Amino acid sequence: MKILIASQNPVKVNAVKEAFKICFSEPVHVCGLAINSGVSDQPSSDEETLVGAKNRVCGLLQSGESADYFVGIEGGIELVDGSLQAFAWLVVSDGERQSLGRTGSFELPPEVARLIAEGMELGDADDQVFKKQNSKQQNGAEGLLTHDRVTRQTLYQHGLVLALIPFMNKELYR
After folding, report:
1. Which of 64, 89, 136, 173 has its Cβ near the most Cβ atoms within 10 Å?
2. CA 44, 130, 56, 54 torsion-angle sign
3. Does residue 19 sit within a domain?
4. Ramachandran angles phi, psi of 157, nearest 5°
5. Residue 149: CA atoms inside 13 Å, Cβ hemisphere, count?
6. pLDDT digits over 85-125, tens only?
7. Cβ contacts of residue 169 below 8 Å, gap of 6+?
8. Domains in the chain: how many in total?
9. Nearest-CA neighbor of 166 among 93, 68, 103?
10. What is the CATH number of the domain that holds 17?
11. Domain range for 18
């Protein structure tokens, strides 16, 4: 089974690989392509984040590359009840049907939220606050905050498994 993901970030590529292995019994080959989201570098609403994930899948479908599945992942933030929450939308398409999954959300620390409010992307703010380098291609904010009990990869995997439900139960989703 060939899967294209609209990212070359190893965390996203590995999350896709593991989610498909969990859901399907056949071997998977995952290929990452750099596809623009068409939204801001740091989406700041649920809606903008979903649009970014959908745009990534659309870009894959228009790339001319063939695959069994096309995946777009977009992380975003949104202010909820006075706290800045982080989450991601995941979109999966087989070229005909599209399905959505969303991760759980979690509260970002005030210092990270302050840096984002000043214009910094979440990954860069995490690196500064936690004194790390390139954490978004490693364990991410979720890994840093949960002491790796939940990492960026496992959070995405969970959302992807949920997005794959219609493909695992085709008879129920006609």
Report:
1. 89
2. negative
3. yes
4. -55, -45
5. 3
6. 999 999 999 999 999 999 999 999 999 999 999 999 888 89
7. none
8. 1
9. 93
10. 3.90.950.10
11. 2-103+150-168
